[in-house]
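User: I've been trying to design a sequence by hand for this structure and keep getting stuck. Would you show me what you'd pick, starting by listing the structure so we're on the same page?

Assistant: Good idea, let's start from the same input. This is the structure you sent:
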């Protein structure tokens, strides 16, 4: 799934877990995401909140390299003109 084909609208699902990486770079927050991916059951939905603009590239790459499905990445203006990204991943274990 390329960035242009990723939905920018939140799916109509209740998330099972949220990881808040706002204020951190994707690289420093990936450890929290990795733990969540390991802890969640198959079919669960993980929401990742981020202020790192690389989220629009890195989370689609994560989904392409794993069995997890990228459902959407929303972006909106947050405080102090900073963009916030909300990524929705459906967990799939092989």
């Amino acid at each position: 799934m390329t960035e242009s084909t990723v939905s920018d609208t939140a799916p109509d699902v209740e998330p099972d877990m949220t990881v808040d990486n706002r204020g951190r770079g994707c690289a420093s927050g990936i450890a929290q995401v990795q733990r969540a991916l390991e802890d969640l059951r198959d079919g669960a939905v993980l929401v990742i909140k981020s202020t790192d603009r690389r989220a629009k590239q890195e989370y689609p790459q994560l989904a392409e390299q794993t069995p997890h499905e990228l459902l959407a990445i929303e972006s909106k203006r947050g405080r102090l003109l900073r963009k916030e990204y909300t990524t929705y991943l459906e967990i799939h274990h092989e």
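That's my pick for every position. To get oriented when you compare it with your attempt: The beta strands are 17-21, 45-50, 69-77, 83-90. The radius of gyration is 12 Å.
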